[in-house]
Amino acid sequence: MIKKVALFIGLLITTNLFAQALPTIKLNTPYGNVRAQLIKSGWTPVKQREPCIGTFCNIQRNNGYYETLHCWDMSTAACNFVFANSQGKEIIVVTNFERLLFNGFRLP
Fold it and tell me: Tens digit of pLDDT for each residue in 44-95?
């Protein structure tokens, strides 16, 4: 049985694209818990070197989430965080709201 992971944009991809399977994560799980589950599953946060766009993005990096790609400072405060597996394949974790609740995975 092939596990499927919902993308932020509503598409589905199969986890067999990756050597390490993505953990099953419920929507609205706090990002800190999502991050810990991904690391435990062999995924590594990818340190972002480009400048952040938006204040909320800088706040996340200053809080230790150096994998923050960007955040939108509007009402949704959605953020994207980049992780890579041991083969270098990347995924982006999408959160919403200032509480950083898990909203899905997407490909870069």
Answer: 999 999 998 778 888 899 999 999 998 886 666 689 999 999 999 999 999 9
CA–CA gap between residue 69 and residue 82 (Å, rounded): 6
User: Could you give the CA distance from residue 28 to residue 25 in angstroms, rounded to a whole number?
Assistant: 9
Which pLDDT score is estimated for 15? 39
Contact residues for 104 (Cβ-Cβ < 8 A; gap 6+): 5, 6, 7, 8, 27, 94
Q: Do 62 and 54 meet the contact criterion of CB atoms below 8 Å apart?
A: no
Question: Encoding tokens for residue 9?
Answer: 């944009």
Q: Tell me the H-state helices in 1-108.
A: 31-40, 55-62
Cα 105 to the chain's mean position, in Å?
A: 6
CB-based contact 29:51 (threshold 8 Å): no
